[in-house]
Every structure is written in structure tokens, then in C-alpha cells.
Amino acid sequence: MNLKPRHLYGFAFVIVAFFNMTAYPQQLPHSFARPHEVAVTHLHLDLQVDFDARRLVGAATLTVDRRTDASRLFLDTNGLDIAKVATVHGTELAWELGQEVAKLGRPLAIELPAAGDQVVISYSSRPTAEAVQWLTPAQTTDKQHPFLFTQSQAILARTWVPCQDTPAVRMTYSAKIQVPPQLLAVMSASNPQVKTATGIYHFEMKQPIPSYLLALAVGDLEFHQLGSRSGVYAEPSVVKKAVWELQDTERMIAAAETLYGPYRWERYDVIFLPSSFPFGGMENPRLTFATPTILAGDRSLVALIAHELAHSWSGNLVTNATWNDFWLNEGFTVYFEQRIMEAIYGRDYAEMLARLTLDGLLDEIKDLKARDTWLKLDLANRNPDDGMTAIAYDKGYFFLRMLEEKVGRETWDAFLRTYFETFAFQSMTTEGFLKYLDEHLKVEVDVRAWVYSPGLPDNCPVVETEELARVAAAAAAFLGGKSPAEISEAFQTKDWTTHHWNHFLRSFKGGLTIDQMTRLDAEFKFTASGNSEITHDWLLLVIGAGYEPGMQKLEAFLTGQGRRKFLKPLYEALAKTDTGLVVAKRIYEQARPGYHAVSTQTIDTILGLNDDDK
Ligand code: BES
Ligand code: ZN
């Protein structure tokens, strides 16, 4: 019982509170917050990182803005152990955790003090907090020290911070984080570049951000500068490679600013996490979190950096108001990413990327339910993660590209620049964007057909690239009987980039025989490739053909990294046959402890494992 007598208003409330069963109605999708009544404007975190207990322990001080005379503050929590809620002067406040809702967790209702606008919540996260991955030294690259990182998007911030976990609310934040002395802590905020002797680090984020951009990483990290306002954090053995790979980062920032206005976050740094990071990248402000699987050694996978950097405008500056508007974040970002890539590497290169994007979209759209192919999603009562398909990203991209092609680049770029400027540090709904579009861009097309209907409208741009047409011809020649050596010679495959190889391998979706696999592997050494994108595509063919020499690599790849984009298709391909499913389960049993919760949730479902038998 956490209610102090002076805060009890009546028998009914007491009884309900006693059973902790109040079902608070949700007023926003995916959140129990009621920001129109009381909004959190600043968060101060004071946390100790306890690697032994796998807990973040301390307090969150929230500053609120009272917008009505409502007396209670509603927060989101999921699996937090709340010890106490008080004023900054130590006076305890009444609070209650409401009924649990699957995926959303439990609302925390706090009775606000009559005077004062701050509440202090003493709490700890649990070892099972879904946002947080606690890695043992053995699970890191350098194997010397433990590591921790968080992933808050979409609704996991509430598993490590009590907050209004909706992208419709923005707050500034500050933090004091205590870690073991030999480790460095970094956040989506102003960051240290060297370790302190005490293990205490202070952070400040003075631009207001939504909760899904709260982020923390702790480990044996080194910093290396890239340019005047950019740098890289990574474990010691990774830093040098990372610096080389990200050499074009300053150019990307400059290109982005030229396109759509000033970079508003001061620094742009990137941290390379251990290989279990479940995403390619995460746009945590000032500090992109990235997978080491883009360190290909040839800078061929840096579009991911362009993407996360682009979110500094689309997403972090102008933010989707709900996860149903996710395309406003990702579609705009894929568009912006393409423009950055084009500015730096040229139109031909960028068009190759766009073509691969279109192929991927056409492939994925076939398997989606019609309603899930509208740009405006309906994720009510679903995990917002379900919205992470090619629709928000790539249908979103082609919608914006279509608009660009209709009105011309100059008009379009001016429109976008003004859009980012006008709505900076605000959230945006799909309807708000369409209204702004109607008012500010003269375009004679049915934009609503893109947003509120399934599939791809007929005016979807077509992407033809000579480069990839030649790659398709090479693949056809191989299927027609040409030897890999002849192909190599005729098509000068020694000059091919990762993207050429991706297109080549994806031409064999119909499947290859073991003999064809053997001949390709002998010439092009796919099984031995160190490139994660090529490896992924090759392993899909390995599974399809039952190509035994590739199976060991498959196992090494599935246990060696935890990026969901790579794991999901591979486990799905394995799960298609009874024997494959047995192999998948055996590998997964070994690999699962190394994956982040975001990935295990997806793979558990693919392999039909529920809570009782995993
Ligand atoms: N913000 C996303 C990652 C995300 C989306 C996390 C939804 C949780 C929920 C990030 O910007 C992203 O899109 N990453 C992509 C890479 C990109 C190049 C398409 C990824 O991780 O694959
Ligand atoms: Zn993104």
C-alpha cells in the first residue's frame, strides 16, 4: 500500500488502490499519458548502473506543466519497481499503478502537490526491462568489460524511465549516471569524450525531445574525432575501423544542411554497439546508435549513417504525433537519406539504392494485409513494432519522390525546408501534413490515394538503372548456362559494389541447385564474405538450396550478430521445412541469450515458442 492517509478521498478509491486494479482509459494510442491535462516538460535522471543486479537504480525528477486543474499526473511504466514518489522537499505523494495492459504496461497515477511543479519518483528498472540489454564481457567485441545499451523506440522508454511515453510530448532532460569506474557512459545528450575517475557522468539535452529518443550506453568506449562537430564512440578494437568507414560523415552533415536547413543539435556522433544491437541504426539525438555490421571495410553501407543523420530533421525535429503516423518519420527520412547519398556519391549510385528499395517494397507489399499498406497505419491495440514494414519507409519514400517529380526539385526542396523550419520541435499528424501540403504546394495529383488506400498507386515513380540492368543480365546469363568465370570476365564483377552483389543474389529468388551454388561459391567466395548484406542474401539461397558448405556460416552469422533485419528472414526461411525448423531451434537455443528483447520477440513468434517452452 502506497497511499498515505491524508491522500485518501474515499472508500472506493482505497479499495481499488488496494488491489492495484484501476483500469485507466487510454486517451492516446499506446500511452496512458494525458498531456493535455498535465505535461512533463523536463526530466532529470539520477541513476546508478548496477551490472551485478542488472538494474538501473535511482530517481527520475519530472517537471510538469499543468494545463488544466487536473490533480493527477499520468505516466507510462512497464515493469518498473516504484519505491516512492515525493516532492523535491521529500513530502511523499500518493500514487497508484493501474491495471496492466499487454505491451503497454501500467499507468502510474500520481497525486500532484498543491504547490510546486516537480515530482521525484524513486524506482529501479528490472533485469528483464525490454529496452535494456545487459551484456556480459563475453558478449562484447573486446570481451573485457560488461556493456549496456537501451533501445527506447517505439514504446520501451517506459521499461527504464517513468515518463509520458508518447511521441506527442517533448521534454528537455538532464542526467547524472554512475557507472563502474573503468566504463564510459553516453546518452542522447551532451556527451563526455573521456572517462572520469569516479565513474560519474553528467548529461544535458537542452532541445526538447520525445521519450522514444531517450538513450543510454555504457561500456569500455573510446572516442575518436571525425570532424569539428562529429566523432565516433566504439570499443577500443573497433574505433579505427569505424573512423575509416565514417570518413564522409562531415560531408553528409554539410549536404543535409544545404538541403533542408541548419543542423539543430550541435554535435553529431555515432556509437558502434556490440553486434547484438537489434537495428541497423537508431537516431538518438546527438548520438546515433549503430550496428557494427555496417563496417564493411569499403564504406559501402554508409547510407545507414545518412539515414540516421536525416532523422535529425525528419523525426527528431518534426516528430510523428502517433505511431500511426510513422511514415512521417521514416518515409521522409528515406527520402532525405537518398538526397544526401545523391549529393555525395552522385545520381547513378543513389539510383542503384533507390532501385533496390523499390524491389524490396514490391516484394514485401505482396505479403502484407491490405490495411497495413496504407501510409496512415492503424496500430490500435497492436504493437507499434508491427508498423515497421517497407510501407512507412519505402512507400513513404516513393510518395515524396512522386511529389518531387511532379512539382520539380526546386519547388519541392523549398517546400520541405519551410516545413522543417515551421514545425521544428513539434509533433505532426498525417492530417496536419496533408493540410500543410494542400496549402503550400500546388500539385495536381491525388495525394490521399497514397495515404488512405492500399498498395502502390499507378503514379509511383519508376527507377531504371543501367548498372543494375547489367547485373540482372549477368544473373540471367548464369541461369542460361554461362560459367561464373565467364560472367566475371564479361561483366567486370571485380568492380561491383555491395549493391551489385545484392541485386545479383536477389535475382535467384526462384532458387538455385546445389551445383549452381557450388559453382558460384567457387568463383565469388560468397560463403567466405565478410560483408553482412551479401552474407544475408547468400544465406537465404543456402537455406533454399540446402547447400551444406554454407550451413556453418549460417550458424556463425545467426549467433554472431543480433540485427533483426538479418535474423528474421533467415529464421523464417529455415522454419519453412520440418528439418529446417529443427536446425533453427537448435541454433536459436544457443543464440537467444545473446539477442536483445526486440529480436527475441520476433524470433520467438517465428519459431512458435511461447513463454512456456522457450
Ligand atoms: N528509427 C529507426 C529504428 C526503429 C524504428 C526502431 C521503429 C524501433 C522502432 C531507424 O532510423 C531505422 O529506420 N533503422 C533502419 C536503418 C535504415 C537505414 C532503414 C534499421 O535499423 O534497419
Ligand atoms: Zn529510420
Can you describe what's shown?
The strands form five sheets. A six-stranded mixed beta sheet has the order 4-7-2-1-10-12, with no helix packed on it. The chain is globular, with a radius of gyration of 25 Å. The protein has three domains: 172 residues, tricorn interacting facor f3 domain (Immunoglobulin-like, Sandwich), CATH 2.60.40.1730; 152 residues, Neutral Protease, domain 2 (Orthogonal Bundle), CATH 1.10.390.10; 146 residues, Alpha Horseshoe (Serine Threonine Protein Phosphatase 5, Tetratricopeptide repeat). The protein is built from 19 helices and 20 strands. By secondary structure, it is an alpha+beta fold. The two termini are 35 Å apart.
What's the SSE blueprint?
Blueprint: H1 11-18, E1 38-50, E2 55-66, E3 72-77, E4 81-86, E5 95-97, E6 106-111, E7 118-124, E8 132-135, E9 147-150, E10 171-178, E11 184-187, E12 200-209, E13 216-219, E14 222-227, E15 230-234, H2 236-245, H3 249-260, E16 268-272, E17 281-282, E18 287-290, H4 303-310, E19 318-320, H5 326-345, H6 347-365, H7 390-407, H8 409-422, E20 426-428, H9 430-440, H10 447-452, H11 466-479, H12 484-490, H13 498-506, H14 514-524, H15 532-545, H16 551-560, H17 564-574, H18 578-591, H19 597-606
Short descriptors:
alpha+beta; Immunoglobulin-like; Neutral Protease, domain 2; Serine Threonine Protein Phosphatase 5, Tetratricopeptide repeat; 3 domains; 5-stranded mixed beta sheet; 19% strand; binds ligand BES; binds zinc ion
CATH topology-level fold name of the largest domain: Immunoglobulin-like
Overall pLDDT score: 96
Strand content: 15-25%
Domain count, please report it. Answer: 3
DSSP E strands, number: 20
What's the name of the CATH homologous superfamily of the largest domain?
A: tricorn interacting facor f3 domain
Instruction: Give the class-level CATH name of the largest domain.
Output: Mainly Beta
Which structural class do you get from the secondary structure elements? Answer: alpha+beta
Rg value: 25 Å
Let me know the largest β-sheet: 6 strands, mixed
Total helical elements: 19
Q: How do the strands of the widest beta sheet line up side by side?
A: 4-7-2-1-10-12
Shape: globular
Q: Terminal Cα separation, in Å?
A: 35 Å
What small-molecule ligands were found? ligand BES, zinc ion
Contiguous uncertain segments of 5+ residues:
1-18
Helix fraction, binned, reads: 25-40%
